Amino acid sequence: MPVIRVYTGPSTYEELDLDDYYVKTDFIDELRTSPVYMRDLRLYNNGVPTSQLGTPTIAEIAMIPERFSNKLAFYDISKIKFYTSNNKTTWTEFVVSDDNKRKLVGGDVNPWPPPLIIPAGTPHFRIEIEAAPPYCYLNALYSYWDSQGNHIKVKIQKRNCSTLAWEQHTDSDVYVSSWPGHLFLPFEFIPFDYNSTSSSDYNAIRIDFVDIDWIYPESEIRFYCLQIWGGFPVGKRTIYSVDEYKKTTFPAEVKATTFKRSSDNAEVSYEDHNHLLSHLSDVAFTNLSGGQMMIYTPEGGGKWVNFTPDFALRSHTHSASDINSGTLNSARIPNLSASKITSGTLSTDVLPDIPFSKITTLGGNDFLMSTPDGGLTFVSTVPFDRLPIGSGSNEVAIGNHKHSASEITSGTLNSARIPNLSASKITSGTLSSDRLPSIPFNLLPVGTSSSTVARGSHTHEIAHITNLASSLDELHSRISDLGVTSLKLIRSRGATDNLTGVGTGTTAGSVTLTESVNIGDTLLIEVNDNRYYDTTPKVILATIGRSSEISSSANMISFSTWNGTYFLNKTFTVWASGTTLYFGSKRQFTITLLSDGSSLTGANSDYTLYVGRVWKVLI
User: For the chain, how many helices (H) and strands (E)?
Assistant: First the structure.
């Protein structure tokens, strides 16, 4: 009778009669839930073929890369989103950069810092993944992670392609933790399709990390990679592809310190590459046609260029007839004798601007003037009758001319040109405030009447402030009715500072006050069941009755929360010794309304209390 020996511990085992295999249900259940230790597991070569798609065997997964592959490798990062929640009902999107999304699902390095971090103290965290081509099966979740001692539950949801309703796919309440380690969650295969309307397919999944137990509340949870493995379609575990001729194709850039040719192990270069001139050996260029030349162009990336331009010899001349446009620079014209010009009249259009230095025979005169017979003469002063007298833009004014005040239309007069004026001369318009001088204090009408001004340093009686006296009287009356004279802040917290944890369950915790508290003192205490400043902390009024712990119901203080499904009544005790305020017996009773509204269920448990500001009521 065939028997299989199954090890249930390092040195313990059970022998299973294969003839009774399908009736030993208790033992089969144990195999499904407990670790099974195997020293030499071998493939059963029975010669019987099998064919299936959604549930690969351990042997197939281990032996055949095409049978089980990572369907999230290099995934479309626009399909991945992240969320946080305080109650598993309302979720807020959590921003992760595109660069970190790529590191999370692509590559096989161990990135630092980790691409995904759950912030310390987050109650619940979610990863939501929309389906992208191609259609595939999902069978298992894997991540290399580090909870740093904190515990999480991992659950999977899926969205139906037909109804678009979310369905719970896995719902284990087992806590997992690692520091660091490998997170693995196998599950029944999910047909994952981005374009289906079938009720048998699903177009999105959620990976929920819920009910996080922050055993180390200051330590974040880190994820270094995220993979989802499946058995369809056929896959591979390498990024490159190889065809039938052994040609290997890489989907992106390939980097290496060197590439070598297999035939002689010689280092080879890229098809497009450059060389320094020092790397070139002597080369003789032959058969260049007339007019051709080879030049080196470093500005073009360091390449030799062969081109055929039309060019003149380095040493060549021009005929004067070749200069048929433009104007010669005066530096190109030599000093000439007037005898060189023997006929015709020079056009002013062909004369350049001639610098004064080129005119060498002025003899101390400064002007060149025409004569009545058409000649030119040099003069030191232009005669008055030869000047263009007038008021136009191309004319000159006579020496004894005058101007109307209306002709002064720009610039600013020198103050010396303005006479001293009487104030009576200003009869219209309004002076700019910039023109007014500072008025000395002794010229101001200082006083307490309606026609005077008050000094800068002055005081008012309460009676002078409208309605202030009556408002203060009413406030004083109300405070007196309560017997409270004031509140004194004896433990502070910044507006955006989180609350302080004071222990879980019966473990006592404490905060330090700025002054001592005695039995009989009444305090206002800011508390909550989580640390965050923006989750509406509650203020509890309590009178200190003891200087040591007591957990009877008569000493309990409580506050309640309700989110439509869960009603939680949270209790604790409080006592004081000097400037230390203690908290104990942090217990809660949870009442759950069933989804159909038919009945309520209740349970009690421990919780963690957080404390913020504390005020003392002064009587």
Answer: 4, 29
Based on the number of CB atoms within 10 Å of its own CB, is 609 exposed (0-12), middle (13-18) or buried (19 or more)? buried
- How far, in Å, CA of 342 to CA of 450, rounded? 101
The amino acid that residue 320 corresponds to is A
- Residue 6: exposed, middle, or buried by beta-carbon count in 10 A (0-12, 13-18, 19+)? middle
- pLDDT tens sequence across 484-519: 567 899 999 998 999 999 999 989 999 999 999 999
Contact 228, 71 (CB under 8 A): yes
Residue labelled with tokens 């006929």: 343
7 pLDDT more than 70: no
CA atoms of 355 and 329, how far apart (whole Å): 11
379, 369 Cβ separation under 8 angstroms: yes
Question: Looking at residue 536, what DSSP letter applies?
Answer: -
Q: Which domains does the chain have, with CATH numbers?
A: 1-42 (no CATH), 67-230 (2.60.120.260), 486-618 (no CATH)
CA distance 589 to 581: 24
Least Cα distance to 207 among 132, 118, 120, 107 occurs for 118
Residue 564 tokens read as 């439509």
Task: Enter the pTM of the model.
Answer: 0.42
